[in-house]
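Annex B. Sample input.
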Amino acid sequence: MATDPSEYDEAIPALAAHLAKIERAVSRTRSSHAGRAYALVRPALVQALGDEGAQRVVPQVVDEFARRISEDPDNLPF
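Annex B, continued. Sample output.
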């Protein structure tokens, strides 16, 4: 099934906006929860994602960001 390349061009602004929401949520959670226990970080991150309107994030991605905020907050992609 081929996809028209123009569909990618049309999707880029929406994707960029969604990624910006995720970045804000991760940054906010890192600022408030860096180094805390994973069990505290993950719910805080889920709440921050919800506050940003970015609930649609793959659960494994949320888990990884929460783990990194908990264990290695200086080693995040943002």
